Amino acid sequence: MERMPAWADVVLIPLISLLLAAILSALVILAIGENPVEAFNLMVEGALMRSAGWGYTLYYATNFIFTGLAVAVAFHARMFNIGGEGQAMLGGLGVALVSLYIPWPHWSLALLGSCVGAALFGAAWAFIPAYLQAKRGSHIVITTIMFNFIAAALLNYVLVSLLKPVGAMDPASANFPAATHLPTFQDMFATAENPLFRGAPANVTFFIALAACLFVWLLIWRTRLGYEIRAQGFSESAAKYAGISPARIIIIAMLISGALAGMMGVNTAQGEAERLVLNSTEGAGFIGIAVALMGRNHPLGVLLAAILFGFLYQGGAELALWTNIPRELIVVIQALVILFTGALDNMVRMPLERIFMALNRKGA
Amino acid sequence: MTLMTKFLGAAAAMALSAGAALAEPALIYDLGGKFDKSFNEAAFNGATKWAEENGGSFRDIELQSEAQREQALRRFAEAGLNPVITTGFAFSTPIANVAADYPDTKFVTIDGYVDPEAHPNVLSILFSEHQGSYLVGVMAGMASESGTVGFVGGMDIPLIRKFACGYAQGVKAVNPDATVIANMTGTTPAAWNDPVKGSELAKAQISQGADVIFAAAGGTGIGVLQTAADEDILSIGVDSNQNYLHPGKVLTSMLKRVDVAVADAMAAGEDLETGVKVLGLAEDGVGVAIDDNNAELVSGDMTTAVEEAKAKIIAGDTEVHDYTADDSCPALTF
Predict the structure, then answer these.
(1) Whole-prediction pTM value?
(2) What Gene Ontology cellular component terms go with this record (chain B) (predicted)?
(3) What is the ipTM of this complex?
(4) Which of A9, A127, B32, B50 is 20 to 30 A from B210, alpha carbon to alpha carbon?
(5) Is the Cβ pair A326, B62 closer than 8 Å?
């Protein structure tokens, strides 16, 4: 018998967690002498009531969708890939190389090319920890997090020593050629009399992220490979008994995971900055873990959680712009949401389960 | 009638607030944050000083992500704030992307460079850090008894190599046989705020014989200065005057007058002159800090040598090599 209905697991628990996080955040804001209602209004106003606000919310969400999906796919094979950060950095490098050194005639081709480049580089970076896990038993958590640091050092070396234009101060690549610039939402939806999404960085990559959600859903629940990945995740020994090679599944799942994380680079490098900056991932790889946890490793959940975190990022920027709430406290508010939706999941789940079981007993 | 008064009142209020908003400048700090005891804090201090002296007010923001650079520029410009001042070289490209959309707003980039031909409403303020570093190098070379001096940089980027290169040249100018040990704290932005690693690097350099260490490393430098004081050797601070942190242990500080640049830009307001401004020794944009805290460490010879070197640089007799001009350094290998 199910302990509680599926809708409670998917909808009720995240909502209660969010409510708790919101109440605690309100107390924090109150404690530093600002008005929490005003702050909340400002966040909603800035992130959801203006089209440019949506442009930023969806831009951040695009990053989190990719990294969230990356964590989710690996998790279905019971792999905890916390190297999304490094894989995304390498993905960005792939995008930069493809955009800088191949003379693309049109952005649509460039987009295809950079998606392939980003996915290949991200997957390659995930391959080494995957191989070490599959063949040598080195724990994936340790190796992937170590690879984040190696990626940061590698990217720094490549940017400072190889890609940086001579005389430039910024450790960043040269600007990508104009033919590779992706259409932003402003280019796509704004008209002369209705300037929607003005200056916002959301771009065509968002639709690639949506396609990636669909792809992951099909892969995990509608293909043989997805079945094998899930079987491996539920029980490695049972999967082995059924003739599924654990090493093969570990490596394939991690390659897909790394490719998804890497594709975030298309959004940040090609879509937003139109060059590769050193700090282009900005922790999105780690946010992806929270997004996957909150989204219950389901693409639809990941999509919704990513938009929520996009809202928190953009709303946080509005708070920083127009109030005196310091940056650190905005991070505290974001962290509270992560804490309640991710780490303290059981705090809400267990009492809820008890309530539902009590109700069931009465019903039966 | 009442409706009319309401309209008039609203119009008047809008005009008033618009007028007030126009007079207000904005300040955007780089990712290092407002209170780094160094570069960004100098900007904040300059702005605060301007606000106190003129009874003005300003808006500021600490960024959380790269995408917010353009966002903050646009939102402040749309709100009618003028001028919009930014700290850190990373703003060069975002300002170049945004400036043309807001021709009536003046943008200022400190440490960044935006082509003045293409963007007539941008002021780029650059500092000749290599000249200031040369002067503290002269002092370090004279103060060192072991003939070995150290340099601890923050993140390994060209700007910090520019500091190191000028410093090494200054040291070698007074003691051609001196050894300069240069270390960078790291390769990620975290290197700007890692006092523990700064302390370790300082200890490693001390064990190699260094008895004066110049820290150009933002918040990491606090650890370098602390360790130098604990181990009873001399240190050199950076950007702001850090002599007071350990009186009698900090030989001097390489001043970069970001505060003056910010205050001047705010004072000029909407009439700010745009273009490119290079602040070197001649403009008092960089210099060495001498105050009560380090007076007894600085000998008469040292003061004379520094004054002499300064005069020579201003006159053009001494050419201090700028690392960023050709990405190389004759006085030091990294």
Answers:
(1) 0.83
(2) plasma membrane
(3) 0.79
(4) B32
(5) yes
